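Same chain as my last thread, 101 residues:
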Amino acid sequence: MVADQVEVITRKAGEEHGWIWRSDGKGEFTIAEAADAKRGAEMLRMASRLAPRQQEIRLHLAQALIAVGDKAGAREAIGELTKLDKTSPIRIEAEKLQATL
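reply #2:
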């Protein structure tokens, strides 16, 4: 990871508040309520533009979006990952997540 901690703030369309996803890159993350959040897919697209080759970011975001009930945002995150090489561990994990939606 390039930073000590990564934070993603997101909000599902129509909801009054959003969520903040935090990770220190050591394999776990936390999710908490965030009052001033933007819509989930908007943040996901922004993260993808900033780090287009970081499939792990997409996978973790999809997991976080599922955790807060944003299945549409999770599907968007997973979409590109399922186009990776069939033997890619990231693709395999993404397909497992996709099966839960």
